[in-house]
Amino acid sequence: MAQNQKYDTLQSHHTYEIGEVVVTGTRNATDIRHLSQTVSVIDRPKIDNAMQPSLLPVLTEQVPGLFVTSRGIMGYGVSNGAAGGISLRGLSGGNARLMVMIDGHPQYAGIFGHPISDAYQSFLAERVEVLRGPASVLYGSNAMGGVINIVTRKMQQDGVSTNLHTGYGSYNTLETELTNRIRKGRFSSILSGSYNRTDGHRPDMGFEQYGGYAKLSYEITDRWSLRGDVNVTHFNASYPGPANAPLLDGDQRITRGVTSLALENRYEKSSGAITFFYNWGNHWINDGYTPSEGEGPQDDRFLSHDNMMGVSLYQSTRFFKGNRITLGIDWFRYGGRAWNEYVSGENVGTTSKLVDKHENELAGYVDLRQDIGSWLTFNAGFRADHHSRVGTEWVPQAGVAFHLSRTIELKVSASKGFRYPILREMYMFPPQNPDLQPESMWNYELAFSQRLMDGRLTYGINLFYIDGKNLIMTLPNPNGSGMLNQNSGEIKNTGVEVQADFRINRWWSVEGNYSYLHMKNPIIAAPKHKLHTGVYFSHGRWNVSTGLQYIAGLYTQTDPVSTEEFVLWNLRALFQVSRQLSIWARGENLLAQQYEINAGYPMPRATIMAGFNINF
């Protein structure tokens, strides 16, 4: 797992001394300087400082090129009117082109293939590692555009720690979290629970969420350890429809769960693990109706049960100095069933099946890293991935990292990403097409970073070019009437990403990141310009931060074209009353900007939350 060390990267404003160790760009713990791909790291202090119950707003601020849609003060929902769409360099998780993982295990709905954004809560994470660019060699389909890996929390030293976080604010919004961590000898555990709710800033926009997480770990010997965890999230959400056509009875009841079991080994020259994971979800959805358009209540309700299970085996070995080879095998089985249940009308009491299907993937991969002297690291990888219906996909990648001095890094990489068509695209709802083929893309990247003033100032710049083909689009059926999903799209995105940190003194630090994205074909929820600047102050009992987020060229719809431009000002403060008690407050959109991210869903003006933390 990633280690808590002082950073030699751009992701923190703390002291820079030695390289940070990450696990997302490679299966084994690796100094981030030796990777040819770009990994952004958001550590626990930054997550705590953001004071957010959801991880995704934190990632939007901290990771250049990453953007998450929103529709209200809390909650993303699913289905019609949903937000929580994650895009990275113009590639969307809503289209299964971006993977979210928890401790390296994929977290997407078995039928729909997309992440469930309301499941990614802050209490889970010790840190979040975001690999910007394809990660299909290690993680297969859905990691086409990158991965977000949530590394779960654990107790580092013997003892017991319990924390209660609670807050209340605008629109009758409540957030609570209780976490207990224990470490005693070879045993450690973490138990967390949360309850969040809001009335929302519009009528019929309530949201209520329950979450629970438990992880147990035991070090069998100095070399072998066993861990297991379970995470369950349930939320009730209402969506009011677009402002110009209000919706009634748009309600959702969603439950998502995940469990995993891992046996890990750590030797001087070799490390690895075998892990089993199982994800599942139950969805109940009433699509509601629009009285202004003469509609009446829906006769049916959408229900689905999806699941995904997998086994992952890998072993990483160092054969000689500067060498590391990782061999791995993955097996996934995913799918589920979906149906409509009629609660009124002439078909009351009956159901109609939409889909009932599972598919499998079996893959093997090799990842090679070789240091050449002290000035260069060569990275290469290859994956052979076989799908039970589509066939076999071959996935290569390669890159080099030049260590030009102790403070300068230059990286060049070329990597392929792909995704298999998801069950919804092939089998559910017109325009489904069971003959769809995989999407694929190449990402070419050049990255430069430098550390100055004994690590107090760091900056970096990334240039990338994405060339994708066979993207699945809905177009007129060439062999009949209506519309049909087809492998007819392409993507050619270019962009620049800049990130910098400056630690002014012991108390003050500033940071910023900016991304520019040029898209040949406009994509919803992928802004052309995205800028965030933050100022941090920590002294004595006070911890204060403020930041500005600037978004421009954000497409909320493409037919007809509609774009947004806005500036958000956020302010957060915490005062440590005693060792056990602190009080906090945060204000968001304090400039009271009027803007939309999802077309037809105006965002709330200025909002305020305040509360307290108790540690015992």
Question: Can you tell me about this structure?
Answer:
The protein has 616 residues and is mostly beta strands. It is 4% helix and 59% strand. It contains four helices and 32 strands. It has helices at residues 44-50, 56-62, 136-139, 423-427; strands at residues 21-22, 30-31, 38-43, 66-68, 86-88, 91-92, 99-102, 105-106, 125-132, 146-152, 159-169, 173-184, 187-198, 207-219, 224-238, 248-266, 270-289, 300-317, 323-342, 351-372, 376-387, 391-403, 408-419, 439-452, 457-476, 483-503, 508-519, 529-539, 542-558, 561-576, 581-588, 607-615. It has a 22-stranded antiparallel barrel. The chain has a five-stranded mixed sheet with strand order 3-9-10-7-8. It has a three-stranded antiparallel sheet with strand order 4-5-6. A hairpin with a 2-residue loop joins strand 28 (529-539) and strand 29 (542-558). It starts with 20 loop residues before the first strand and ends with a strand. Mean pLDDT is 91; it is low at 1-18.
* SS-derived structural category: mainly beta
Morphology call: globular
Mean pLDDT: 91
Q: What level of helicity do the residues show?
A: under 10%
Amino- and carboxy-terminal Cα gap: 27 Å
- Rg, nearest Å: 24 Å
How large a portion of the residues is in β-strands, by DSSP E? over 45%
Number of strands: 32
Question: What topology emerges from the helices and strands here?
Answer:
Layout: E1 21-22, E2 30-31, E3 38-43, H1 44-50, H2 56-62, E4 66-68, E5 86-88, E6 91-92, E7 99-102, E8 105-106, E9 125-132, H3 136-139, E10 146-152, E11 159-169, E12 173-184, E13 187-198, E14 207-219, E15 224-238, E16 248-266, E17 270-289, E18 300-317, E19 323-342, E20 351-372, E21 376-387, E22 391-403, E23 408-419, H4 423-427, E24 439-452, E25 457-476, E26 483-503, E27 508-519, E28 529-539, E29 542-558, E30 561-576, E31 581-588, E32 607-615
Parallel strand pairs: 7-10
Antiparallel strand pairs: 1-2, 3-9, 4-5, 5-6, 7-8, 9-10, 11-12, 11-32, 12-13, 13-14, 14-15, 15-16, 16-17, 17-18, 18-19, 19-20, 20-21, 21-22, 22-23, 23-24, 24-25, 25-26, 26-27, 27-28, 28-29, 29-30, 30-31, 31-32
